[in-house]
Amino acid sequence: MNTTLVEEQTFTVSDNIMLDPSILMDNEKLEKALSFAINNRDLKFFIPSRFTKLFDYPNVPHDDVEKFYGVHNVDWQRIKMMLREYDGAVTRFSITREHQQKHALFLEELYSSIKNETLTDILFEEWVFLQEYSWIVAKTQKTFNKFKDAGAWVLEGGKKAFDFAAKRMLRKTIDDILTRADKLRAIGKWIGVGISSATVFIAPMAAFGILAAYGYMMSIDPEE
């Protein structure tokens, strides 16, 4: 098997950013993220459409969702009001039938791992978003861990570890990626970027027997 490392791969650093629910359910971080979005119009911010449907039933307990993200007694009505106040700062992202068909096997694995339809739908929208060369900003790493549990390959680490592992694969844009991660650090601790083109990874990773069935992403902690 030819395992020659891929040099000088091209990679488009997207301007599309999704806010993970761990940000949305934290009052302080939500306000900071929305303010950041308003003041950085060069970036386009999105939130999972399935998550926003929880606002339709603000008085109904969403215990499973709160438990997953490690929060309690979420003020759903306040989140809805904040999004209205910052109208235009974020866009609701919804998946298409084509997305569902393309990632059907990953959706099955995700549900098998989570065993909760609402959470699965939310995380699946985030996964599809990532696979369009896009970004996710999160307060915790829980979303990325679930992607890994469902079969995704996740390259994770701090700036130094990430740079060491990725510079041979994405040499032309590694500085751009880390610069974007640093900027998004103002919103959340963990930064995820999706790589939808498996050709970027297969050659380098085949040498280590790492071949993901459903997709690839990078998880960066810019503080490390």
Describe this structure as you would to a colleague.
This protein has 224 residues and is α/β, with parallel strands linked by helices. It has one domain. The chain is 46% helix and 16% strand. The protein has helices at 21-24, 27-39, 49-52, 63-69, 76-85, 97-102, 104-114, 117-130, 142-149, 159-166, 174-184, 199-206; strands at residues 16-19, 44-48, 90-93, 135-138, 153-158, 190-195, 216-221. A seven-stranded mixed β-sheet has the order 3-2-1-4-6-7-5, sandwiched between helices. Helix 2 (27-39) packs parallel to helix 5 and helix 7 packs across helix 8 (117-130). Mean pLDDT is 80; it is low at 1-10 and 197-212.
Multimerization status: single chain
Mean pLDDT: 80
Question: How much beta, percentage-wise?
Answer: 15-25%
Count of alpha/pi helices: 12
Protein structure class: alpha/beta
Order of helical and strand elements: EHHEHHHEHHHEHEHHEHE
Topology of helices and strands:
Blueprint (H helix, E strand, L loop, with lengths): L15 E4 L1 H4 L2 H13 L4 E5 H4 L10 H7 L6 H10 L4 E4 L3 H6 L1 H11 L2 H14 L4 E4 L3 H8 L3 E6 H8 L7 H11 L5 E6 L3 H8 L9 E6 L3
Parallel strand pairs: 1-2, 1-4, 2-3, 5-7
Antiparallel strand pairs: 4-6, 6-7
Helix pairs in contact: 2-5, 7-8
